Amino acid sequence: MSYGIKADSFTGNLTGNVNGSFKATYAAKTANYTLTSNDSVINCTSNSFAITLPTAAGVSGQTYVIKNSGSGTITMNTTSSQTIDGNASGTLTLIQYDAMTVVSDGANWIIV
Question: How many separate domains does the chain show?
Answer without folding.
Answer: 1
